[in-house]
Amino acid sequence: MFFALRDLRSARWRFVLITGVVLLLSVLVAGLLGLTAGLANQSVSALRALGSNNSDFVLPADDKGPIDLDRAALTNEQIADVRAESPSAVPVGIARVTLDNGTETGVSVVALGLADEVGSVTPPAPGAVLLSAGVSDELGGNADQISVSGTQLTAAGDAGDLWHSHTPVVVTDLDTWATLAPRGGTATAMAVPADTVSQNVASEGSGLTLVDSDGLVNALPSHRAENTSLNTMTYMLIAVTALVVGAFFTVWGMQRRRDVAILKALGASTRAVVRDSVGQAALVLVVGITGGVAIAALVGLVAGGAVPFVVSANTTVVPAALLAVLGLAGAAISLRPVVTADPNSALGAAR
């Protein structure tokens, strides 16, 4: 690393420039991943909570697959068929309702009705409701009573950070949910213990399909489209980072080709100069990526209340490791000028 460190000091502004570029790209990648995770949390956190114990779910379906959860409704006959196979199946209701808050428009929320505990969500007593953090924020604090279309409900506690399609969630028992959302049918889906229901229940003509917890999340088309778009942008940014680092070290390797040839003429092995060049790239990547991810995480923590943003290992450590690996791969691919530097050319140039 002796030559690499001297190189970094002698051409410091050149390395400051590429380190700054890597830092900015890292801010973009980590920031986009944080926003993607935040948007996903506000889209399907309620569904993920329902599937947290790896339950399976029976959903209404047509010939294209599960029906959009915002339109899905099970009939009493379908519920009876599922319970015939799995007596412990739990009906789940999901529907949009409007809370009365004294304004003309009210507050739009999603009512989640459960006949029993599903995943990490437990329904309150009949006539009561659990408010998610988003609903409490909308109502401006701790509300003891809420009203939905004239029906008074007692706020019995906190439902946690539950969202569905970017709308805050309230949790009730299934009978109360049916009175709040009469257009939602008897239930939206059935939660069944994993592997207790055979695919027979979803036979052709039954109008049902059996999915796991991931399939439940994918039954929300808006989430699929949103997540796919954001992930595509993230992958493109990661690829651009690898290309930028590779291009920089390709040009840098061509410019220092004569210096490397002199080193080889003095006895340095090819392995030593390659190790020196990769170490140089690693230093640039570590400083740039660490700084960029730290800035993105700090901005996310500060702005987390205003925009959906999640700071976690998946939005900091994972992208940092991925950028480092791809950046080193790009630098390694660009080593050809260093590997092929001929010591004879240095000796010839000196004569």
Report on the structure:
There is one protein chain. By secondary structure, this protein is of the alpha+beta class. 53% of the residues lie in helices and 18% in strands. It has twelve helices and eleven strands. The protein has a six-stranded mixed beta barrel. Helix 1 (2-10) packs across helix 9, helix 2 (12-50) packs antiparallel against helix 7 and helix 9 (270-303) runs antiparallel to helix 10 (317-333). The protein is elongated and about 90 Å long. The two termini are 29 Å apart. The relative contact order is 0.19.
Total count of strands: 11
* Distance separating the two termini: 29 Å
Number of helices: 12
Give the overall shape: elongated
Low-confidence stretches: none
The largest β sheet comes out as:
6 strands, mixed, barrel
| Order of secondary-structure elements | HHEEHEEEHEEEEHEEHHHHHHH
Strand order in the largest sheet: 3-4-9-5-7-6
Helix fraction bin: 40-55%
- Using only C-alpha atoms, the radius of gyration works out to 29 Å
Task: Estimate what percentage of residues fall within beta strands.
Answer: 15-25%
Mean pLDDT: 84
- The assigned structural class equals alpha+beta
